[in-house]
Structure of ABC transporter:
Amino acid sequence: MIILKLIGESFRFAFDALRQNKLRTMLSLLGITIGIFAIIFVFSAADTFRSKLQASIDKLGSKTIFVQKWPWGGFGDYPWWKYVNRPEPSLRDYELLRDRLEHAEGLSYEIWANERTIKYRSNSVEGVGIRAASQDFNKTWTLDFQEGRYFTDNEGRAGSPVVLIGALVAEGLFNGQPAIGKSIIVMGRKLNVVGVFKKEGEDILGMSQDKNIVMPLNFAKGIMDIESDRYDPSITVRGYEHIALDEIESEIKGTMRSIRRLRPGVEDDFSLNKSTIASNQLDTMFGMVDLAGWVIGGFSILVGGFGIANIMFVSVKERTNIIGIQKSLGAKNYFIMLQFLFEAIALCLLGGLLGLLLVYLATLAASAAGFEMILFMKNIMLGIGVSVIIGTISGFWPAYAASRLDPVEAIRS
């Protein structure tokens, strides 16, 4: 009860200081407010961006591994010269992997052709991504359909002229009319639409089926060189959920080395890419962003801390005679010390809450401008925690000085 009463009195003194010396107190709190705003705004923006990127990466699947020529990365000291002469994944690699892997739930060979134009009668859609994939494509990727179905085994083996299209492609070609059974022109060939992917909306990495189409690999053999590096061939392997990712990766690596006939000690001439690589790169990148946020806001908070300490020294000076009376009536040193310490914390909390309010208003403004930004609860707690810590540090010495005053000398002042 004593502690609660002490906290209540401390907040009352803090509000009294704010009411009686509005300009002085607000100027002193400004450093805390700006510092908390800078730190929490940077963290909120980074966390929002990070969550969107992570959601895109999660689409790849936690047990999915991509056998490719190039390792993911591509920035910083990227040794591209080590990889440029590597062979692309081939159909032979795919077929041998399919026969030998035991931990794979699904395995597909895929190629890409970007920025193509698709036509239906007088309608056309530009900038469409064309993907040709082997039959197990639906086992390596999660596919949801709003209309139609996936390829049958017979269609895949025979290379039938069938195609799956994205929701935006369907809207652009058919203007809301049913797409199933209609024939579209792709790279000069007619293909019958058998399925339309459910609309996803484009994520921050552009990973969406909305403006893509998928055709059987065996059909694509007749219209393009499916092993050419211009189509970026890759092999996608999705492992069983009950098998550890390291085991799946180890099996793929050993099998690929055997297929490529690489001697022990010879470096791999292929890359095994997985979602954890991208996640680790995100952690590194956003760790630097977080550090920048601390540096930007740290200086303001440091200045604000000096401002709070200055206010507390003035407060001690103004209430010296009251301190003397309290001590003469039996108040302990810790009581006087906690009284001023809680007052400093209360002032910092006021500054911190004002900074959080500014961040919240900034998130509303960003959302109104088209960039959805979220003020996460962990960042709110961080702002409050930093305010309490700064208040404790800034108020300690003034509070300690007040607790050490001689009651007789204090009453006389």
Remarks:
- The radius of gyration is 32 Å.
